[in-house]
Amino acid sequence: MRILIIGGDGYCGWASALHLAARNHDVTILDSLVRRRWDCELGVSTLTPIHSMTERLEAWERQGERPIRFIEADAADYAALCDAIVTTQPEAIVNFGQQRSAPYSMIDRDHAAATMINNSLCNLNVLWAMREFAPGAHLVKLGTMGEYGTPNIEIEEGFITIEHKGRRDTLPFPKQPGSFYHLSKVADSDQIYFATRVWGLRATDLNQGVVYGVHTEETARAPELINRFDYDGVFGTALNRFCVQAALGHPLTVYGRGGQTRAFLNITDTVRCIELALQSPAPAGKFRVFNQFTQTFSVLNLARHVERVGKMLGLRVRIDHVENPRVERETHFYSSLNTNLLALGLEPVLLTDEVVASMIESARTFRSRIDRAQIMPKVRWKGLVRRSELGFLDSERVG
Amino acid sequence: MRILIIGGDGYCGWASALHLAARNHDVTILDSLVRRRWDCELGVSTLTPIHSMTERLEAWERQGERPIRFIEADAADYAALCDAIVTTQPEAIVNFGQQRSAPYSMIDRDHAAATMINNSLCNLNVLWAMREFAPGAHLVKLGTMGEYGTPNIEIEEGFITIEHKGRRDTLPFPKQPGSFYHLSKVADSDQIYFATRVWGLRATDLNQGVVYGVHTEETARAPELINRFDYDGVFGTALNRFCVQAALGHPLTVYGRGGQTRAFLNITDTVRCIELALQSPAPAGKFRVFNQFTQTFSVLNLARHVERVGKMLGLRVRIDHVENPRVERETHFYSSLNTNLLALGLEPVLLTDEVVASMIESARTFRSRIDRAQIMPKVRWKGLVRRSELGFLDSERVG
Lengths: 399, 399
Description:
The structure is a homodimer. By secondary structure, chain A is an alpha/beta fold.
């Protein structure tokens, strides 16, 4: 299958590109490499030493695998995107090309605006470009479970049948996004649903949980293929951050009471879910939503799991409840379906002690690369960021 | 009350600015005058001869009324917007600053992107600027009934209580927007709801129906105060367009079967609704949604009403069913609540024969200004616009 992967230089995108190329698909990555520039802007770095795209792709070819094509372009540039689609004639387009950090989107107005424009303008461009040049291709778009927020009813996969005053309809599941990043994802989903209804495009929206893990089978094959792994207060997500903290002897930073429950999955399941979605394309005119996760945990239980495994490894681990920088419910009901991907054959890799141990071990391997100053959260949902705390901002407006 | 009106040069904005200034509020208009440029771009013109902003404001002062301040600036320019808010210290901000035509947003990718960026970036800017410089002000935002689409259940005002698998929650009413314009409005509503939850802003989202009518009490007072009135295939809305067609002897253009039912209100009720919303501000932290309309009609019934009144006036009127340029249901259930504004004291001006007759008479007054070539719809939801039909486009991409 000819597959165009937008955002193939990022954490999920890179792992997915290799996974698909290893299965002999004809993969093209389109990426502006902006993710690396965000690291520079924030003064942070991936725990793992990632290589340049050229080095990555050369190492992949040296494995004797099917080469991956690379187009350095921004999907926000409509002409460049159209050109890539005309050139590669994709049967499927996987769109990972998004600013994916909620804290980044909450730094200030400029970062909120940049997130909205990067994510929703690229999404809009992909839809119009597909309409013009690839109307039969299957769009696989990375959404997030965070689009739903934490409603007091079970979360369905994209749509819910509502009985109301004696009538009934199946409607988009109500969304309650919790940051400008999450808002952009909801807007994307609405745009895609519209494009399927009006233009007959086929699309699968993968509402993904929080991804954890360092390696997939393919990224582990050579040092040049290693994937990025973020632990900083802006791009680092809960479990990855906890494992780095355990490796370092830093307290595990649970935000607030820690009763926040979220959906999780291993990066090895992410790449498998992408493959499963691609293998069974949505029919023309269909907007298909899969909730892409394997387990749910409260943040506190996740920290306790890391604490327990860390101690088994002989580490000193303790949990700190730090002031929650976000505005979110800290105790709430949480239940969500994830049956669609299981029905397609997903066999979940669960979060065992061994998985946690291997993540802590990976963090210890790269211990010398850790910048302790980047671990604590600095971006607060309420109150503007103080410049003194953030070396990376020089906007006049941040006082 | 100190009121900043963003988009005060447009159809609803201008009428509202005068209505509020006549009631002795301290009104500032912020507008980039882009609405006039869109007319130039499309080669169309308002039926009524509107005057420059300077002439408008001078004529208003000559009425002995409280002067209206004018800031020529684009709300997409964050620094200019912040400056206006710091200068005027508004107690309320009314945001009409939006590209409001569904067909305009469907012309091509560039117009879809421009609509998204104009509407959602301005909305995002207003929220961040309020957070920084006017956290206590009341935001009144023009939404649209079109955000809801046409669900098969009754449309509530913004939120719906859902019972699902033995649990219950009150959640945002599911939206099914039908164009990139409507998508931008849904994204705006989501952003505003978020800002009220997280920052404690106070906001009222007015999901307005289709507005009709030429004059309000204030715009009728002097020729220089006359409001714009659009009848063209891009900016003209159903009833206004039918009245112009009747005045001209052009068949009334009903799109498809005409069973599309929509919510409507008179421009004289629009200005009153804005006033009512401002008089009873939403409490801090509250996202309040009012469905702002007075009656619902199917497009065919609306055309029949104009046909009947036109014949009473001695005109030859006939109805043509033209191919529907949009993708929408042509027969469907439609019922919506509008109790919030009625509870605040709105006394609807209903669509009587006299109202229709006065609109047709207005159209006859300006008959010589009508460009027949602009009446038929040219923008199709499916299939790209053909350049040969649209004098106004010179994008290379439109083939």
